[in-house]
Amino acid sequence: MSRTPLPDLAAGAPAAGPPATADLGPALAALVAGAVAMGLSPVLVRVVSPEVGPFASAFWRVALALPVLWGWMRWEEARAPYLRRGVTPSALLAGLAFSGDLLFWHLAILGTTVANATFFATTAPVFVVLFAWIGLRRRPAGRTLAGLALCLLGGAALVGQSVQVDPSRLAGDRDGVITALFFALYFLTVERARARGLGAARVTFVASCVTALVLLGAVALLETRPVLPRSPGAAAGLLALALISHAGGQGLLSVALGRLPAGFSSLVIFLEAIAAALLAWLVLGEALGPLQGLGGGLILAGIAVARPRRARTTSP
Questions:
Q1: Domain for residue 315, yes or no?
Q2: What is the secondary structure of the chain as a DSSP string?
């Protein structure tokens, strides 16, 4: 996928970094590990949901991760002095995009079935490719489109048998599509922030600060259920949601977006769906059938087809 450099709105040029290498192994490993970490989030939300409301759990997911992300940022920048400091508009926009993603995801879960919400959320890579193509003039490679098609078929097979068409749930289905739109914007803005010289830790920390502020307002205005957990188990679930799914999952995704294009990296949502299905089977005892196995196989095949052959070029 070709990339046309666009100027960032922040003043000053990005700091110089080490030259890009052709070894994509670490970035791919970060992408897969991040998908597994984010795939744990539905299970953890299910664990804490009897005691904590959906908007409150989304807020705690981000807020409790901030101290860890701040420590990671200080450590990363001490080891890599070439990384750019400060805040760029793209990092702030990433926080707003992730806020929209979490808010509309929870609204979709409340307004329609989990299967419907998941199905519509998996269309995010389509919007990533469209936004990059139309807005950034990045014409997608044929293998990217072929891999995306396989992943969409696999995602449909993974959750499709549970998807229902119900006019009373159209608002929730709409919120699922909006979730995908915001998630697509999140991928592109994080990629832009990384291309402008910010480290993965700083991008994740800045975006998380913005997201925490927006979600705090959402809790104050929209939450009708308890905000604080009552049991140690629910508190531990919120902490795991913050440290594993957010600090780990979103942080590793930022690492991957420093080397991999957003179009390919957005396929992480399909890996996340596989991880969530496997974890639900192991932890919650939810059954998996042959159709889910076929869907997982198609997703893995699509990712293999779409994988980039070399590292993308970064601006000096």
A1: no
A2: --------SSSSPPPP-PPP-S--HHHHHHHHHHHHHHHTHHHHHHHHTTTS-HHHHHHHHHHTTHHHHHHHHHHHHHH-TTSB-S--HHHHHHHHHHHHHHHHHHHHHHHS-HHHHHHHHTTHHHHHHHHHHHHS--PPPHHHHHHHHHHHHHHHHHHGGG----GGGHHHHHHHHHHHHHHHHHHHHHHHHHHTTB-HHHHHHHHHHHHHHHHHHHHHHH--S-SS-SSHHHHHHHHHIIIIIIIIIIHHHHHHTTTS-HHHHTTHHHHHHHHHHHHIIIII-----HHHHHHHHHHHHHHHHH--SSPPP---
Whether residue 20 lies inside any domain: the answer is no
The whole-number pLDDT of residue 123 equals 85
Q: Please indicate, yes or no, if residue 274 is contained in any of the structural domains.
A: yes
The string of pLDDT tens digits covering residues 1-24 is 333 333 333 333 333 344 344 567
Q: What is the pTM of this model?
A: 0.81
Instruction: Read off the pLDDT of residues 34-82 as tens digits, 9 standing for 90 and up.
Output: 888 887 887 788 788 889 988 999 999 999 999 999 999 999 999 988 8
Give the count of domains, the chain.
Answer: 1
